[in-house]
Structures are given as C-alpha cells and as structure tokens.
Amino acid sequence: MRRSQIPAEPFPFEVDFARTALVIIDMQRDFLEPGGFGASLGNDVSRLRSAVGPCSAMLEGARAAGLLVIHTREGHRPDLADAPPAKVLRGPPEKRIGACGPMGRILVRGEPGHEIVPELAPIAGEPVIDKPGKGAFYQTDLDLVLRNRGVETLLVAGVTTEVCVHTTVREANDRGYRCLVLSDACASYFPEFHAVGLAMIAAQGGIFGWVSTTGEVLAALSAAERAA
C-alpha cells in the first residue's frame, strides 16, 4: 500500500499501513464488566462500553486489510509474585488483586475476568501480550514482536485512556514508534480524564502522538486498499 494521510490532531498523520499495527489495550472483563477489578475500585464500568463498538469496527477493518493486530491484557501470575505490594494493597482485602470475585480471582491470569470481552476476542495468529503493569512494553516482548514485523506505526485503542493507553503511548514514543490514538475507541471511568488524556497526547505539536477517530482511519485504510 502507498502512504496515506489521515485527518488528525495536531496535524494530518501520514502512515504506511504496511508498517502499521493495531494495538487494542486491556479490553478485559475485569475492567468492563461488573465484579471485576474496575468495579472493585468503585468505578462505573459501564462507561467503558462506549469503546467496544469503535474497537470492533477498527478490528474488523484491520483484519480485512491484513494489518498486524495485537491485544494486551493486564494481569498477574496466580502466585502474585509479579504484583508489587503497592499495587495490591489498595482498598479492602476482599476487593484487591488476587481476591475471589464473581469472575474468579481479580486481575489474575487464567481467570474468567482476565479474558478479553467476547466482542473483541483475539483470533488465531493475533499476538496477545500479557503485561504485569500499566504500560504494554514493561516486562513484555511487545517491542520484539513489533520490530520483528517491521512495524513503525501503532494505531492505539483500549482502556483506560489516561492510564494504560497513555502509559503505552508514552513508552512507544520513547522507543521511536509513531502512535495514532483512536479517540472513540478509547474510554475512561472519568470522562474528564479521557478528554485531558487525549489533549495531552496531541499537545505541543504531538508530543506523544496524534489523535483521530476510527472513522477517519477506516476511510484512509479503505482508500489505500483501492489504490493498491
């Protein structure tokens, strides 16, 4: 495919889709459904559902175009050996990481709550990055996976905007990747944090990256396929 231009903030984003990956961050039951980690912290988890439809549309478009699709999941070993006490010791003991909840042990790998929501479930061939922290590069092989595929640009979606999405974009920026964050395919428990998080990414001439929408990206991807 030839290089394409996508309307974005702070200015149009030029991309070679052949060197681009879609990264969908932490669209897990533990964050999006009642009874998981997000709810245990007192959040209204329904606020994250707004990102599911746009994520699904972008996922379908990326798969059809043959883009590399990567999913991430935040969670810990069953023995919690990779979970720092500062992260675990939050809130009452019965609602902490590792405690038993309606979807199994909270934020523990292999439990039902750790899984990605059914609407966005990975298919064969799509790497799933299990991460112990907020950023997708910390203590994972994501950088190796991307470099082995010659990826230079990341289309970033997922939750939450100001935490795991933001941390991942910052990590990617420091490693030389160009990031385009899909505003409607991200969400937060706090709408004001979502807005500010996106503004911070595009501030100062795109200090961490660019911000656009799934509609704009899908239109550019479709145009690039027709021109190929």
Strand count, sense and barrel status of the largest sheet are: 6 strands, parallel
Low-confidence stretches: none
Q: Widest sheet: strand order?
A: 7-4-3-8-9-10
Cα distance spanning the termini: 5 Å
Strand percentage, roughly? 15-25%
Please, what is the average pLDDT? 96
Q: What class do helices, strands and sheet pairing give?
A: alpha/beta
The beta-strand count equals 10
Helix content: 25-40%
What is the gyration radius calculated from CA atoms? 17 Å
Order of helices and strands: EEEHHHEHEEEHEHEHEH
Sum up the overall morphology in one term: globular
- Count of helical segments? 8
Keywords:
alpha/beta, six-stranded parallel beta sheet, globular, single chain, 228 residues, 8 helices
Task: Kindly describe this structure.
The chain is 34% helix and 21% strand. The chain has 228 residues and is an alpha/beta fold. The strands form three sheets. The protein has a six-stranded parallel beta sheet with strand order 7-4-3-8-9-10, with helices on both faces. Helix 6 packs parallel to helix 7. It starts with a strand and ends with a helix. The model has no long low-confidence stretch (mean pLDDT 96).
Topology:
Blueprint: E1 3-6, E2 13-16, E3 20-25, H1 29-32, H2 37-40, H3 52-65, E4 68-74, H4 85-88, E5 100-101, E6 104-105, E7 128-131, H5 142-148, E8 153-159, H6 161-174, E9 178-187, H7 191-206, E10 210-212, H8 214-227
Parallel strand pairs: 3-4, 3-8, 4-7, 8-9, 9-10
Antiparallel strand pairs: 1-2, 5-6
Helix pairs in contact: 3-8, 6-7
